[in-house]
């Protein structure tokens, strides 16, 4: 959805933009190509392998891109010195509303590079170590999480993050297997899940792997904190584009911005507003889905939903 992202995101050719999920650098490249010669991009990702990959792809734009390995939750702190420098540099426009960012992109979830690398342990299609961490220097790998988690907590995790109806049966089967021998690989986990049903549909395997990945990377907590960072860092008139791949992510985005778009929270029966809250964001266009052609080229785009918001004024998060 690179063209839709660029069209929705770029409000100022010479502004400063942040791609917080640079991954392989596809969207970052599209943004840099659309910006003018004084437009800059902070290309961020929590995965060091993604940073290397994006570094190669974006090398032709090296004067206008800064690479930052950081998670959404540390974005404000990590980006601050670079934003201060960029926005005070004479060749970068300082927006009227203060030294702030013109646009931010969140293309959520995992990249195809991560899924295709068997040593990362994200895919049930490929045997590899049961890791699933986007940043391999932080957090607890999936194998360790499964070794330590209580069965009742695993039921909740698979049900909430995988939206899987058979969570109880699957969690029991995984816990039985891990109590006999440690689950060290994706194939070990797949076998443990398939013990409940040897003809286990791929959809179920995908849901359980998704659930574990979300837990290992605290993806939903990270998303909440990342959106708060965006709300703070954007300048009035600045845009935020979010591509979500499942309803859990999309719901968080929708709920956060419904509140900011609405402003006043007084009961309708009150004759005049007493809360003083005004709308601070507006939705910039309808939510978008990938075209058939995009889905054909990249089947993962089938579930993608793009939402774009524009900041109207200052917000206290
Ligand atoms: C769908 S991919 C992005 C693909 C990218 N737009 C491209 O064109 O190649 C998502 C990326 O976001 C990163 N990511 C996910 N959650 C993150 C977080 N909380 N903080 C930083 N990066 C994150 C992942 O490591 C992954 O590389």
Structural features, described:
It contains 13 helices and 8 strands. Helix 7 (151-162) crosses helix 10 (202-216). The chain has helices spanning 2-9, 26-34, 48-57, 75-88, 112-116, 142-148, 151-162, 167-180, 186-194, 202-216, 219-233, 247-262, 292-297; strands at residues 16-19, 40-45, 65-69, 101-107, 234-244, 281-283, 288-289, 305-311. It folds into 2 domains: 2-112 and 219-311, Vaccinia Virus protein VP39 (Rossmann fold), CATH 3.40.50.150; 135-216, DNA polymerase, domain 1 (Orthogonal Bundle), CATH 1.10.150. 44% of the residues lie in helices and 14% in strands. Helix 2 links the parallel strand 1 (16-19) and strand 2. Strands 1, 2, 3, 4, 5, 6, 7 and 8 form an 8-stranded mixed sheet that branches. It is an alpha/beta fold and 317 residues long. The protein binds S-adenosylmethionine. The site of S-adenosylmethionine (SAM) has 18 residues, from helix 2. Residues 21, 23-27, 45-47, 50, 71-72, 107, 109-111, 134, 222 line the site of S-adenosylmethionine (SAM).
What does this entry show, briefly?
The chain has 317 residues and is α/β, with parallel strands linked by helices. The chain is 44% helix and 14% strand. α1 crosses α2, α7 crosses α10 and α8 crosses α9.
Beta percentage is 5-15%
- State the total count of DSSP E strands: 8
Provide mean pLDDT, rounded.
93
Q: Helix/strand-derived class?
A: alpha/beta
The fourth-level CATH homologous superfamily of the largest domain is Vaccinia Virus protein VP39
How many domains, in number, for the residues?
2
- Alpha carbon gyration radius: 21 Å
Uncertain parts = 90-97
The third-level CATH topology of the largest domain is Rossmann fold
How would you spell out the order of helices and strands? HEHEHEHEHHHHHHHEHEEHE
**Assembly state:** single chain
Determine the number of helices (DSSP H or I, runs of at least 4 residues).
13
């Amino acid at each position: 959805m690179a063209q839709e992202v660029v069209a929705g995101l770029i409000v100022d050719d010479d502004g400063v933009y942040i791609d917080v999920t640079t991954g392989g650098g596809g969207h970052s490249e599209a943004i840099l190509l659309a910006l003018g010669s004084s437009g800059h991009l902070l290309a961020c990702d929590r995965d060091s392998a993604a940073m290397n990959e994006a570094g190669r792809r974006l090398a032709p734009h090296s004067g206008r891109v800064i690479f930052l390995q950081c998670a959404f939750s540390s974005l404000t702190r990590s980006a601050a010195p670079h934003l201060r420098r960029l926005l005070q540099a004479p060749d970068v426009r300082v927006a009227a509303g203060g030294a702030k960012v013109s646009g931010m992109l969140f293309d959520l979830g995992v990249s195809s590079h991560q899924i295709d690398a068997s040593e990362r342990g994200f895919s049930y299609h490929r045997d590899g170590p049961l890791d699933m961490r986007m940043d391999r220097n932080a957090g607890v790998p999936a194998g360790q999480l499964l070794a330590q988690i209580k069965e009742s907590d695993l039921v909740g995790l698979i049900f909430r993050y995988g939206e899987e109806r058979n969570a109880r049966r699957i969690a029991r089967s995984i816990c039985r297997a891990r109590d006999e021998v440690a689950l060290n690989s994706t194939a070990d986990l797949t076998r443990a899940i398939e013990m409940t049903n040897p003809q286990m549909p791929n959809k179920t395997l995908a849901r359980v792997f998704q659930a574990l990945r979300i837990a290992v990377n605290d993806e939903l907590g990270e998303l909440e904190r990342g959106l708060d960072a965006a709300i703070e860092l954007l300048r009035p008139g600045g845009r935020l584009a979010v591509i979500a791949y499942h309803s859990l992510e999309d719901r968080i985005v929708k709920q956060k911005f419904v509140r900011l778009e609405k402003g006043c929270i007084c009961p309708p029966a009150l004759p005049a507003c007493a809360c003083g809250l005004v709308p601070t964001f507006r939705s910039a266009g309808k939510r978008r889905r990938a075209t058939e052609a995009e889905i054909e080229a990249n089947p993962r785009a089938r579930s993608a939903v793009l939402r774009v918001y524009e900041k109207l004024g200052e917000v206290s998060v």
